[in-house]
Amino acid sequence: MTSPLISTAELATAINAQAAQLVVVDSRHDLMNAAAGRDAYAAGHIPRAIFMSIDDDLAGKKNGSNGRHPLPPPDVFAATLGAKGIGNDTRVVVYDSGNAMYAGRLWWMLRWLGHDNVFVLDGGFAKWQLEGRPLETAEQTRAPATFVASMRAQMRLTADDTVAAITDPQLRIVDARAAERYRGEVEPVDPIAGHIPGATNRPFGLNQRDGVFKPAAELKLEFEAILDGRAPTQLIHQCGSGVSACANMLAMEHAGLPGSRLYAGSWSEWCSDPTRPVAVGAEPFKP
């Protein structure tokens, strides 16, 4: 099975060898500063990289009850991809600052629309820059392409699906947020603190060591402990708004455990409805 990660050395070679077939996407972002990603891109980015915004390109319209980063309608996102120069035959490499929180979102969304030829830069911009590799500041665009979605609807779960999963012992919900947010001790961005009852906490930052993903074999052991005999398809990932959870899905794919699913609305959608239950504190591990 091919890893969804690509190294900086591999990308450096591909930029020159596959220029016509390759689109590199800068998806850097800061939840506390919406302009930070675009500003970082303007200050310096990987050569030939285009910029795609989490807020503007990778999210749909908010209505107050569908979370902070609701998924756009598939046809709208397909049109966005085409306008950016990404077609069905395009190889895509996406990067963020390095933790794969935002790059993982675009990786998952492309997979959701049936596009498998997409990879995340392991170590992201931080590793590329640390290695002294070339940068540029000019904004890049690509000629428009045609992207036709081939939907994998089973990859995405709704709030109702997740409500039902709480009482289904065959399923496990995994929360990718930091432990203190999961426990409800702090909540910097959403109006209510806590977590979905029964969810297990697996902060997405645990996937990396020294700025890159842990070896596949190590991650496989860690996620198999969470699965506890379940198939990956029985794992439901969520986070604050359906972004950092994708990094856990990316780690599972790298570990050879594909097929887990995303509750895309995540906590920001969940807590918008007062009828949905909320838990605080640590949850005991439940086999």
What number of domains?
2
- Which overall shape is indicated by the principal axes computed on the Cα atoms? globular
Give me the strand/helix succession.
EHEHEHEHEHEHEHEEEHEHEH
- The percent of residues in helical segments reads 25-40%
Overall pLDDT confidence: 96
- What structural category characterises the helix and strand content? alpha/beta
Proportion in β-strands:
5-15%
Tell me the strand order in the biggest sheet.
1-5-4-2-3
Point out poorly predicted stretches: none
Number of helices: 10
CATH architecture of the largest domain: 3-Layer(aba) Sandwich
Largest sheet: 5 strands, parallel
Rounded radius of gyration (Å): 18 Å
- Identify the CATH homologous superfamily of the largest domain: Rhodanese-like domain
Task: Summarize this structure as a short list of keywords or feature phrases.
13% strand; 2 domains; 287 residues; five-stranded parallel sheet; Oxidized Rhodanese, domain 1
